[in-house]
């Protein structure tokens, strides 16, 4: 059965799609980045890599790791906030009043 041309179809809001995509990507990046940075700084590897010859070198750039650790919480917050806003945009038509203005 094909949709009637008289019934208004539900159009996709590109801003809502962008909020969902940004939210998911930001949360995933924050979780992955924090895991990577914490794994790099863990006491198990001490931040150094030693080859079979005994030559040791640092495995990470200090500034890069601490930048990721500093940015992970705000990026996570931005991702969660964008998902909340996308849900609010989706819920807005359900909670707004259906009737028009009431005259005195």
Automatic annotation (TrEMBL):
Domain of life: Bacteria
Transmembrane segments: 17-37, 71-92
Record keywords: Membrane, Transmembrane, Transmembrane helix
Protein name per its UniProtKB record: Vitamin K epoxide reductase family protein
Organism per entry: Agreia pratensis
């Amino acid at each position: 059965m094909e949709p009637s041309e008289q019934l208004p179809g539900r159009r996709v809001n590109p801003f809502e799609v962008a909020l969902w995509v940004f939210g998911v990507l930001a949360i995933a990046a924050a979780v992955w980045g924090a895991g990577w940075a914490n794994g790099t700084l863990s006491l198990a590897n001490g931040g150094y890599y030693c080859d079979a010859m005994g030559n040791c070198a640092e495995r990470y750039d200090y500034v890069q790791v601490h930048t990721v650790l500093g940015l992970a919480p705000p990026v996570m917050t931005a991702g969660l906030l964008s998902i909340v806003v996308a849900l609010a945009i989706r819920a807005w038509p359900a909670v707004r009043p259906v009737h028009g203005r009431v005259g005195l």
